[in-house]
TrEMBL record, chain A:
NCBIfam families per UniProt: sensory_box
Organism lineage: Bacteria, Pseudomonadati, Pseudomonadota, Alphaproteobacteria, Rhodobacterales
Membrane-topology descriptor: Multi-pass membrane protein
Species in which this protein is naturally found: Alloyangia mangrovi
Segments forming domain PAS: 206-259
Protein name: histidine kinase
Residues modified to 4-aspartylphosphate: 643
Keyword Cell membrane assigned: yes
Cross-referenced Pfam families: HATPase_c, HisKA, Hpt, PAS, Response_reg
Automatic annotation (TrEMBL), chain B:
Protein name: Oxidoreductase
Origin species: Alloyangia mangrovi
UniProt keyword annotations, A-Z: Signal
Signal peptide: 1-23
InterPro entries: OxRdtase_Mopterin-bd_sf
Amino acid sequence: MQTGGAASALLLCVGLVVWLGWLVLREIDDFSVANSDNLQWSLAQADVEFLQFRLAMKDAQDNPAAMEDVRRRFDIFYSRMVTMSSGRVFHALRESVQSSAPRMRVLDFLEKTVPLIDGPDQEFLAELPSLLQQSEQVTADVRSFSLAALAAFAEVSDSRREGITELMIYIAAVLLALFIGLTLLAYAMFRLFRLAQKRADALQFASTRMKTIVQTSPNAIVVTDEVGVVREFNTAAEALFGFTRAEAVGRLALELMVPAETLGRHQFGALAFLDEHRRPRPEEQHFEITLQTRDLHLFPAEISADRAEADNPLYVFYIRDISNWKEAEEQLTEARDRALAGERTKSEFLAVMSHEMRTPLNGLLGAMQLMRDHSLTERQGDLLDRMQSSGRLLLELVNDVLDLAKFEAGKMKAEEAPFSINRLLDGLVETAQPLAQTYGNELNWRWSGPEGDGAIGDARRLRQVLLNLVGNALKFTRDGSVEVEVEYLDAARTEVEFRVIDNGIGIAEKDLARIFQDFETLDSSYAREAGGTGLGLGIARRFMRLMGGEIGAESEPGEGSLFWIRVPLTPVEAVAAAPEEPRDHPDAPQRPLDVLLVEDNEINRFIVREMLEGEGHKVTIAENGQAGVDAAALHRYDVILMDISMPVMDGTTASGHIRGGTGACAAVPIIALTAHALPEERERFRKVGMTACLTKPIERPLLLRTLAEVTSGDVPALPPEPGVAPAAAPLLTVVQPQQEVPAAPETELLDEERLGAFLSEVPRPTVDKLLERFYAEMDRNIAALAETAPDDPDLGPVAHQCAGSCGPFGVEALRRALGRIETQVKRGDQPSRAELAALADLWQQSRSALESRLEAA
Amino acid sequence: MLGLPSLRTLIALALLVAPVAAAAAKDLPKPEEQPLLVVSGAISNTNLDGTASFDFDMLEGLDTVTFTTKTIWTDGEQTFTGVQLSDLMELVGATGNEIKATAINDYAVNIPREDWVDGGPIVAFLNHGEKMPVRNKGPLWIVYPFDQRPEYQTEQIYSRAIWQLDRIIVLD
């Protein structure tokens, strides 16, 4: 727009100048060639010459000798008139002037006079008087012609002057226009200049500022062009890399800063975008890399890089030496790891110690119970009571510490299972009733507000907390009452409050805060009398936190106390049976049973037989599935114990045959014995008609209880969905211990409890014989396993066999490791070679531990 | 008005310039008829009473130049024949730097020496090859080659183009 305007203005100017120039040139042309000599002179001369002619004529009247002069004057006048009739000068006169009457008459006079002039003197002299007379008239004509011509010429020169004036005005106007135009142009130019200057200044300023920013940056800044040639290298970069700016600029950044061996291998790594001449992707713009300084010192660096897109793209790198940071990070990590390890070691130590203490305690308590079978004096009986009471207290303490340690080790998590609140509280009251009677207290529970029942939550821990609260309440109340209230806190029944209210001695205000702390006992006679570790409420508090609930207390000294817990529970419709509930079944079969034991592992076979025969049951052995089927067909046993993994025929198939056939035992309960039952496996057991499932290693009490249950006909078959209905007692109680303590590699090598039980149940000579065989079998099989290919089909069975052998001796860590391998094989995965190789070491450690343990025994 | 000299004129000029030098410094004969032109003043070559007088035949006998040009006083192209003023001045041995040319009607004008050049004005005595009567600017007319040399088209030169010439006084 502006350009167009300027162009048209320019064009107009040029047009004006050209036009004016043309005008001026024409004028100059006109002036350079004079169009006339002095016209006025000529006209005046005409007058004069005619008068001279007349004078000559007058002279001639008196003196005829003057005739020559008359002729000369005539000729001169004639010539004048001829001159004024021709030529450009004369043509400038108007037609009207040329053809005016006076001129015509003058010319007429001249033409008439010529013959007289040219004629003889006599004739001329004769005519002279009339000629003179005529000439008088002609004088006037010449005069008027001259005047007319003058007027005409004046007009011409006027118009010409006007033309010139006009031209001058044009020139002035155009000059003015040009001047204005030039002024405007100059102004515009000035503006442009100022603008350009301003821009240049701004650019300069920005550049200076940028330079300052770059130079003062504490981080090294390196700018390269597209090929990676260094263009900018700031002070921090100089300090970091040891090159001066002059040295660095112009060199390849990669060669300058990246270690030569990295470059040599063409492994640009994070700097690949530079090599590929492209913009780094967002995830490529921040990275850590190892760079080198001038003296080839390597250091870790953090780089922010991007490409400035332009005609000549630039790469900008912000480089930070993170050596110190890395070092600090490492130190911090190390410190943290050390602290964590220390904490873990402490917790583990506690857990191990508690665990270790439990075994001998159990031994002591068991021995005391056995002592009661002997005849004792009253005094001995009292002493035994005290010993037992102290022992139980000690066991309680150890269990508390174990809970605490597990909690602190982070190995504990709340369980989610359906249970019945009513049955939980029934059981609670029933359990605590003996204690209540001891102190002469009444113990009851009731709903406050609308009644409910089913809920999903961690019933076991909830029961433990409530038992603790109730126990405390009973201990600090004499001949009073303890009441448990339960109430839903919201309409949706997602939060439940349990209140344990007593009318005992109460707790002072100042003590209320600290009773939930660990190892706090209130200094009261009751407390000393009642005993306790002071851990109970601390553990309760932790359990509540674990379940997402709260615990608190209110009390009035002398009036009583109120302990409450609030816990979020998911309501469910109805719960069939409560696992915690004491069952109607006795803990052991009421009569000697005829048992068929189908088991291939000799050690297991021996142990189970020992357990059962020790209880007075009759045991028949079958060494594999086929033998079991055969035996079951011939004789009706009370119950069949069926190992699952066996040569010739496995337990599942054998059970299928027994149930499907018409043998003597087609309807006899079958209990599966398995190292570790996967849910899908148990579904399989159920389908073939097995009655229950026991997880190895077999514990005597569980075995006896399960036998009691299945032989009483109470558990007709495996429940259809064992995971959802844990009420199936034999399954759940057996499987649970495994879930509670997740299988971890750091499991102690030996399960002291199991080993202790084994040693106490089996005579020492037999133990030694079994151990000898165990060592031989394990040495051989573990060595084989450690070198077996992960996809070897024999892997699963061998691992199973070894795991089975480990069980009775309490070689727990190895058993679990083998179990994991077996599980993997069963699920179609392949265990890693490292895992297999690790078995050899584990076995060696386990064997040493076992040997030293047995030497001590 | 502007124009190149015609080829004919150029040829004429070329032919007629050469003999000019040869005419120098010869004795002037006396005029046999009534002189048309009387040159007086600062001259060295005289023939009559201290003047250099020329009749028609004498002029015609000199080296002449013919050219064709337009003038502002005439209509159409005019062919003039005459003696170059420079030749004439050389012939009379003019020593001054200026001449005063006077006409029959007593019109007078001064012509400086710078005009007396080869290819400059002529003292014409023939127009279209014929003698010029007094009734038509005769008998002599100083004519400049206006068309050939446009710089002569000025009022000053026009004023010097004196017709009905009969006297020349060479001024010191």
